[in-house]
Amino acid sequence: MSYVWTAEQITRYFGYYDGLTTRNDYSYLTFETTPEFARSVLPPCFEAADRPLVTVSFMSFMEVAGGHTNRFGRDSAAMIHINARFGAHEGIYYLSVFETEEVNLETGRELWGMPKKLAAVDSFDDGQRLWGFVERKGHRLIEIEADLGAELGPQPAEPEYYFEIRGGFTANGFRLTSAEVLVFRLGAHTSRFRELTSPRVVLTGSPVDPGVGTVPLGAFVEGGNLGGQTAYEVVDVVPLDVERDDYAPFILGRLYDDWPDFRDTEGRRTTATLITP
User: Fold this and answer.
1) Does residue 193 surpass a pLDDT of 60?
2) Which member of 61, 77, 110, 153 has the greatest number of CB atoms within 10 A?
């Protein structure tokens, strides 16, 4: 039944995410940012970290479940995240996630509320220096370059947390009816590690992705290029009070495009409307 799944298909699909791991090549560059920026982009349920940090990262990966890869080939993604506190944990909160594969985009957005958008993403190195870029809707949003240090082999990795906000809107979109925080715990095994130094990062933004160009990067903190495995689990889901706090701006601003052509009406021809909604 191609349009209507069987119970077996549903069980298999969602069971895929139990025990899911990734095999990945991951590169990251972390910078200090301002407390003012941190507070401006964090929803009211989160506290800004004592030392606000922004990380720009690139990853090539494939997913493995039950000892088998989900498909041949690799997926690529680029992320911008900021650290934050929620309850007893400090973790990361994604501001932007750009993906090359639609299936990963849909699952991340619909199941977990991640701010994923479809884009061209690539990163590569020549053994001495690494490059990466993101392009979306004809605009270069992110460029990175950094020097690669010596190979340091396996590294210890502590569990990390990341937080996501998932919300539901009325059918016409004018009101947020519910919101909740998903708390993920990530485990990792790092098989190899090379330090990244002397970074160059350009965050340009565009009319449809303006937020990328507003992220202030301060002093460089650290960077790395690593290979290994990651696994994650949802450890908590916390309902939020949408009557007390407005979470809609934080959800819409990360997940949706603001249609610049619709905003800019000067010089554009009007189009006749032949029916009335």
Assistant:
1) yes
2) 77
